[in-house]
Amino acid sequence: LPKIFGVHCGWIVILLLTVVMYFYLTKSKHGYEIAVIGDSVNTARYAGMNVGHIVIRTVFFSGAICGLVGYLVTCGANGTLYDSVAAGVGFTAITVAWLAQLNPFAMIAISMLLAVLSKGASTLQTRMEVPASVSDILTGVILFSMLACEFFINYRIILRGHHHDGPTGF
Questions:
Q1: Residues 108 and 22: beta-carbon distance below 8 Å
Q2: Which of 56, 124, 127, 139 lies at 20 to 30 Å from 148 by C-alpha?
Q3: What integer pLDDT is reported at residue 165 of this predicted model?
Q4: What is the CA radius of gyration of the chain?
Q5: Hey, is 8 helix, strand or coil?
Q6: Cβ contacts of 94-102, under 8 Å, gap ≥ 24
Q7: What are the residue ranges of helices labelled H in the chain?
């Protein structure tokens, strides 16, 4: 792929793909079917949806997107395919999707944040002799903090043995 201003132009393809996928998932019948199946397979069956067909179609679309992104990564900086070309980006993608709460536009911002964090860690390693794994640790802390916040938002802790009748305690 050509470079624009010295930068690989795969980011343009990803931005366009993000917009297309947003409209596909939120404004189309197929996107609605995916959302219904994600919420409840039994509800989808009750509504008359062919769950197996929808799942297979979604898997094929996902595979096509993964193939496109793999092509962009391979044609990216080096233009070659080698054994560590992906370098664990699948796990990073899961973290990005979780932190963005599956919002595609938030995924772009969080991806940029994690990319800056990762590149900053390699700079810290060369200039200040700090291990580059600091970015992975910080990413993990951010993810666990998000999980903890979500847990306490969705669940309430009730201490057994403490009985409280009202605001005055009587």
A1: no
A2: 124
A3: 60
A4: 22
A5: strand
A6: 95/139, 95/143, 98/143, 98/146, 98/147, 99/142, 99/143, 99/146
A7: 10-27, 29-39, 41-46, 51-74, 89-99, 104-128, 134-154
Question: What is the per-residue burial (b if ≥16 Cβ within 10 Å, else e) of 36-48?
Answer: bbeeeeeebeeee
Tokens coding 122: 């390699």
**DSSP letters of 73-97?**
HHTSSS-S--TTSSTTHHHHHHHHH
State how far the alpha carbon of 5 is from the alpha carbons of 2, 45, 144, in Å. Answer: 10, 51, 37
Q: Three-state SS for 3?
A: strand
For 76-107, write each residue's pLDDT tens digit: 766 677 777 777 777 788 888 888 888 888 98
Q: Would you say how long the chain is, in residues?
A: 170
Cα separation, 31 vs 93, whole angstroms:
21
Whole-structure pTM value: 0.69
- Nearest to residue 21, comparing CAs of 86, 90, 108? 108
Amino acid at 121: A
